[in-house]
Pyruvate dehydrogenase E1 component subunit beta
Amino acid sequence: MTTPPTQRPRLTAVEMEALIPAFEPGQKNGLLAEEWIRKVDDAIVLFDMDAKQSLVAAVFRLKGAAKDWYEGNQGNIRSYSDFKKEILLNFPEKLSVAQVHHELKSRKKKEDELQRGIECEVINLRTIRPLDVETIFQSVQKTHHMVTVEQGWPQCGVGSEICARVMESETFFHLDAPVWRVTGVDVPMPYAKSLEQAALPQVPDIVAAVRTVLGGKSK
């Protein structure tokens, strides 16, 4: 007769809070990801947690931007080893990544990407020096609106130059609304692919800008 293996007792929420500090990037005096993972590993060894318990305990202590990150990527994380690898990759330092996640949270307003009755004329500039201002002027004079899109930072960008050219010409008087710029987030460019996408303009950002310029109304 064989004896079934003893099942490890589940840790309670209170025990997890006592064992593992919270991980919330950007908080003053908060732990870096590498430091936090070491504390999680120590708790796993101390209480002989299995793989499932390890992942549950670690995820339970995520807060703020880290929790948002996990909720958006949990489908790709199947084990604690996957979790540890991904969190160290996505949170290599405290401040810049937290800033990116702050911008990500502010962008999470769901927008309807299919706006009926709105048509856009897209100009894909081949060069920026020389700048084909005549094509831009003709488009603004026809549509009476302008939205610029670029992946660079907002300050001193190509969109800024285009806005200045329009403002300094008679084309300005054809505008029915202020020019709107869509740019990358004003933070250092992250290395992780998921954070890079958050730092660069996406389709919902462009749609929201067009709606803003048109006053939220369809033609």
